[in-house]
Structure formats: C-alpha cells, structure tokens
Design a protein that fits this description.
Elements lengths: L1 H10 L2 E7 L6 H10 L9 H8 L8 H5 L2 H5 L5 H19 L1 E8 L1 H4 L7 H18 L3 E9 L4 H13 L6 E5 L11 H9 L4 E5 L5 H11 L3 E4 L10 H8 L3 E4 L1 H6 L11 H6 L3 E4 L4 H4 L3 H10 L5 H14 L4 H10 L4
Helix pairs in contact: 6-8, 9-10, 11-12
Length: 342
C-alpha cells in the first residue's frame, strides 16, 4: 500500500513556491565545479562530502544549518556555473518531481558575495536559463530575489532597488535570514518601496523565535506570503493565525526543513494540518532539496504519512500554491492545465 502511495505521489503534477537556488546544488555538481575552477573543498570524495554538505538529522538551530550553505555557495563562481546549476535545478524538478510550476529564489549578496560577477548579468543568465527550459519542458517558473537580513539594512535596500530595476526578470522579493537578530520592523521601508513598485513580497517569518515575530511581520510588512510560519501555531490567543487568515496570506510550509532546523520537535508536531484546518492558505515546499536531502515527493509523503493528509487536502495545497504564485496570469493559466486544476 505504501509503495502505491509513493508511486502515486511521484506521478502527481506539483507546484513549488519555496525553493532556494543555493540549496539546489548537488554534491556531484559541487565536486565537478570545484575541480573545473580549482576551488578548495573539505574532500573531493562524494560520500565524504555528503557528510558535510548534506543534512540528514536535526541540528541545534537555524544559524547552524545556514553555515552548511558555504560549501554550495563557493561554486557560484562563473556565469557558466550559474547556468549549469540553474539548469540542473530545473531538470531535477521537472524530471524527478513532476513539478509544473516552480518559483526559484536566491540572494544576490549571499550567492555572489566575494565573486567577480555582475548582479545584472547573473540575473540575466539565471532568468535566461529558465526561459529556455520553459520552451522545452512542461514547466513554468519565475525568479524571486532575496534580501538577506544578516547582511544589513543597506544590503536589503540595495537588493530591493535591484529588483525594482529588473522587474521584467523577477516576479517577487523575499526577506530571509535570521529574524530574531534582525526583526521585520527594520525593513518596513523596503517593503513599502516594493509595494509601491508592484513587486509582491514573501517573508521568512516564524521559522524560529516566537509567534510575536509573525504578528510583527504581518503588521509591519504586509506580505502576500509567509515562508515557514510554524511559530504562529504557538500563539495561545490564536491572534497570529487569525492575522494570517484575515490578511489572505499564503503560508509556504516546509515540513522536513522545519524538522531539521528544530523549528518543530517532530514531524508529527508540524502545524501544517492545523493551519489548513484553521482555514489558512497553505502550500508545501522543499526549501533546499539538495542540502536537506528532500524533494516535493518526500514532502507530500510526509504530509500523508506523518500528518494524515488526504489526497483531497494535498490537492488543496496545490490550489493554494497556484493561487498564491507570483507568476503572471498566462503562466498561471498554463500551470493550472498542467496541474489538472481547471
């Protein structure tokens, strides 16, 4: 029975709104690119590198997990490497996960930091690779730029301005990174600027810390979507969930990621089902598939096996993903047909 469920999930057309390009670099790709560009690695043995570059069990905290990104980040060293990594991320999503709608996000300051690469040229390469891929596969997608909180307010403002200057190449903006040290209220000006420029906003919020941070995010940033949001479920008054619902905000849930970063004590305690039952718009994502050793097939299986999701509830998350996507109308219509939601 379990095998049949797995095969059914694998064949199901899917939509993904929360996937980091920096978390899509496979270990073989890291080794290949490191050798090509003569970059240092802890080891060039694939099995040994997996122990350092992949996370298989819960770590102490989100910041501890973020340090693992340094290995993948080191290979974004040329425009050719950007093209290879982007293509492989798209190919994996299409071929192995049957994803029909994919929003990829990345942080220019993090990904390109310390490298002699131009932000505009890098974005053109990534967006161009996606455009070529769309012409050959049954997948539509878009690029979201990330402002990294820990890089400082100036970096977030710079990235927001860059997004506004390149509206034809990006579909949205994400505020990510350590929310506890860099609270959402600091970025209200950036959010206002993006709203005025008609660039939709998603915010990593409630991944760790407390439900008060989710309330602050909704109050000060007015995002269209929230990434993770698990701490909203811990509000004894129910205000955090109420604000998300009344704001029409879509929650991008990432169960396996939240388990590995200790955002939830166990998979069974993940609030995804609670959110859905409370009437929230919720979709499911894999976050960083290569680093976290996951994909949408696995995330959907976890929803069924650990959280008791029915097939109908899985389809509701797909409907919410389509509705909450930042893609333009014609691409969403194309995705709706591919997802059998029309």
């Amino acid at each position: 029975m379990k095998k049949e469920i797995h095969e059914h999930i694998r064949a199901m057309p899917k939509a993904e709104l929360h996937r980091h390009l920096e978390g899509c670099v496979s270990v073989p790709a890291i080794i290949r690119l490191a050798r090509k560009h003569r970059l240092p690695l802890p080891t060039f043995d694939e099995k040994e590198l997996e122990k350092t570059a992949k996370l298989h069990a819960p770590m102490a905290s989100l910041p501890a997990v973020l340090k693992m990104f340094a290995i993948a980040q080191s290979v974004f060293v040329s425009y050719e490497a950007l093209e290879e990594i982007t293509f492989e991320a798209l190919d994996r999503a299409s071929r192995l996960e049957n994803i029909k709608l994919l929003e990829l996000r990345y942080s220019p300051d993090f990904m390109l930091g310390g490298k002699d690469l131009d932000w505009k040229k890098a974005l053109e390469v990534i967006a161009g690779t996606l455009k070529k891929f769309e012409r050959s596969r049954d997948l539509v997608g878009g690029i979201i730029l990330i402002g990294s909180r820990s890089y400082g307010l100036d970096s977030v403002l710079k990235t927001a301005d860059f997004a506004l200057e390149n509206k034809k190449l990006v579909i949205g903006f994400d505020l990510a990174d350590d929310e506890t040290a860099y609270p959402s209220r600091l970025y209200a000006g950036a959010a206002k600027k993006l709203r005025e420029g008609k660039i939709p906003l998603t915010v990593h919020s409630g991944e760790e810390g407390s439900y008060e941070q989710v309330i602050e995010t909704v109050e000060t940033l007015s995002p269209r979507r929230i990434g993770h949001g698990v701490k909203a479920a811990e509000d004894p008054s129910g205000l955090a969930i109420k604000m998300i619902k009344e704001g029409g905000i879509t929650v991008e849930a990432n169960p396996w990621s939240n388990y590995l970063t200790n955002s939830v004590p166990s998979l069974e305690k993940h609030p995804l089902k609670k959110f859905l039952d409370a009437g929230l718009k919720v979709c499911i994502g894999a976050d960083d598939p290569e680093i976290l050793d996951t994909d949408l097939n696995k995330e959907y299986r976890l929803a069924v096996e650990k959280l008791g999701f029915s097939e109908g509830e899985i389809r509701r998350t797909l409907e919410f993903a389509l509705e909450g996507s930042f893609l333009e109308k014609d691409k969403k219509q194309q995705a709706a047909k591919a997802l059998a939601l029309t």
